[in-house]
Amino acid sequence: MVDDIISYLNNIAINNNIRVIWEHFDPYTPSGASYEDMCVVMNLDWHKQHELIFQYAHELSHIIRGDKSDLAFYNTSRNNKSGIEYQTNVIAVRLLVPFYCNDTDIKDISVYDFIRQYCIPEYLVDVATDEITKFFNERNANKHYI
What is residue 144's predicted lDDT score, i.e. its pLDDT? Predict the structure, then answer.
């Protein structure tokens, strides 16, 4: 399943002309993104391996939203709720929702399973709930009944 979500995110990178480099660094060196270079650098040795999927979506989101600062790095702190990192986390959740929800009935969806599965910070549970709701509303609006 990890390979599937990484492939899904790789396709998002390709579709947005974002180069992705997976490299070995010190386990506490955060991944980063450069809008100028249209490049994400991911740390294969991150000390919390289970965070890599959300971290990858987060770094892609920096470039997708056009963050010009190369000082941007993965940050999930709650106290940054109105800043660049929070807004980037919102986009990261938005990127992950279709993968999690696609081909699944809404009754089988759990926002808490979603945030747990992708190590999304719990302070984003309302964001995740909203994005999952939007996904199903749009999916239902696009259904054609014969």
Answer: 52
Residue type, 75: N
Measure the N-to-C terminal CA separation of the chain; round to a whole number of Å.
Answer: 35
Three-class secondary structure of residue 80 per DSSP: helix
Task: Divide the 146 residues of the chain into consecutive groups of 10 and give the mean pLDDT of each group.
Answer: 92 98 96 95 96 97 85 50 84 98 91 96 97 93 63
- In one-letter notation, the amino acid at residue 61 is S
Question: In whole angstroms, what is the distance from residue 44 CA to residue 125 CA?
Answer: 27
Residue type, 130: D
Residue 20, beta-bridge partner list: 40
Sign of CA dihedral 122, 98, 36, 87: negative
What does the alpha-carbon distance between residue 106 and residue 6 come to, in Å, rounded to a whole number? 23
Q: pLDDT at position 145, please?
A: 47
Q: Determine contact, residues 30/74, Cβ cutoff 8 Å.
A: yes
How would you label 63-81 residue by residue, b for 16+ Cβ within 10 Å and e otherwise? bbeebeeeebbbbbeeeee
